[in-house]
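Exercise 7 asks you to align residues with tokens for two separate proteins.
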Amino acid sequence: ATHTVDNKIKILLENVYRLGSTFCQDNLEATTSAL
């Protein structure tokens, strides 16, 4: 049971990380074009 919970948390963290990195990239591009 704990194994599936660990997997769900790992997948969730990966998704959050992926979203965060694309968000940062978008912000970086927006900031660069604004300059």
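Second protein for Exercise 7:
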Amino acid sequence: MKIVLTLEFCWCRSILRDTLDRTTASNQCAGYGATPNNQVVGVGSGSTIVFAVDRLAERVHQEKLNIVCVPTSFQARQLILQHGLTLSDLDRHPELDVAIDGADEVDTELTLIKGGGGCLTQEKIVAGCSKHFVVIADYRSNSKALGQQWKKGVPIEVIPMAYVPVSRMIAKCFGGEANLRMAVSKAGPVVTDNSNFILDWKFEQALNWKEVNTAIKMIPGVVETGLFVSMAERAYFGMEDGSVQVRDALVK
């Protein structure tokens, strides 16, 4: 089934103008346009997705749509339940019609850096199980090349016992440095939903991201990387002036 990816720009802006800031309105516009009826939808994580779920829930309840949602994280699961949407999982729905998620950075080829919120592995699994993967992002995530806007590096989920050798191997093979992500509200490192650690790799220069992604995943102890290569087919960016910029993946 071909996904209808149309935005109702004027209608959405007129409804939201008095209550939301411009970028928020644009994010909700994207959420409004990306999902038709009778779909299984992967729901991503992060601040931008909150707006998309708000709009999705509004459509579902107003138009009596049949939408089943598969979350990528505990946060996404709670959003689905709080909005009264139908919750499912990959056991019951191993193939999704569309996944909608945010991104920390998006380059001109729709290569993404994701995982700032620590949910990169689940996010990549859900995106990989979807027929279509759509990104909804703030204008600050829109970049010509990875690393131009997002300065915190590429998140890499690792088995706890392997974080030191993995960080050393990444620095040796690709340069830069891979540091253990430390928690803010607790002592010690961030622990993912999968009970793993996260390394944030600050690379020094643009690389062949497809090759780098494959090579890093071959290092023993690496669970997944935050590089999403050739996965997204469309990105919506909420701009400062309230408009929505749309970028499609290049057909190769």
